[in-house]
Amino acid sequence: MNMTHVFDEILKHNEAFVANKEYIPYQTDSNPNKKLAILTCMDSRLTELLPAALGIKNGDAKIIKNAGGMITSPVGSTIRSLVVSIYAFDIKQVMIIGHDHCGMSNVDNSPLIETMKERGITKEAFETFDSDDFDTARWLEGFANVEESVAKTVASVVNHPLIAKDVEVRGFVINPSTGELRPVC
Ligand SMILES: [Zn+2]
Predict the structure, then answer these.
(1) Cα–ligand 1 centroid distance for 22 (angstroms)
(2) Which residue, of 12, 16, 43, 179, is most buried by count of CB atoms within 10 Å of its CB?
(3) What's 68's domain CATH number?
(4) Which Pfam families does this one have (predicted)?
(5) Annotated binding-site residue? 135
């Protein structure tokens, strides 16, 4: 299936979805009912499984996703999303949820960099953002151990100067096949 077909298929589905008022069961307001934010991985196995396994319905939680469910910068968009969630939407609890067999659980990023080069990303492009404080190749690195990564992310949130001390932050790992959730910290 090429990309155009995916877009067309989605637009066709969307037209019927709206026309048939299939949105009605999902209607809610923007204030999360459970006063909960979840930071997790963008893995496509978790799209429906994670909310279903946690009993999270539309309107219950702010769900923030990125590659690996990590915080890679104290001023990046992930921590920004958490700050906005906490202060604009009265979030009191934050769950950091990593998962087994994560695509980012491979510290060696050389296959990814090779693929980028094959797709036309030049050496100069790789060097565009490189500085004393920033290494583009390191920025793309994952982690060796999911529990350690989750614990590190929890610490990044707890110790962040812009996160209020009354916010409870816990870390978990989810199994992407069964949805089983293991507390980490
Ligand atoms: Zn993942």
Answers:
(1) 30
(2) 43
(3) 3.40.1050.10
(4) Pro_CA
(5) no
Q: Is 43 annotated as a binding residue?
A: yes
Residue 56 lies in a domain: yes
Tell me whether residue 99 is annotated as binding: yes
Q: For residue 164, give both structure tokens.
A: 């209020």
Does residue 159 contact residue 102 with C-beta atoms inside 8 Å?
no
The answer to whether 81 and 62 are in contact (CB under 8 A) is: yes
Rounded distance from Cα 174 to ligand 1 centre (Å): 10
Range of the domain at 34: 30-107+142-183
How many domains, the chain?
1
Q: CA 33, CA 57: separation in Å to the nearest integer?
A: 9
Angstrom distances, CA of residue 85 to CA of 13, 22, 68, 167: 31, 28, 20, 11
Residue 122 included in any domain? no
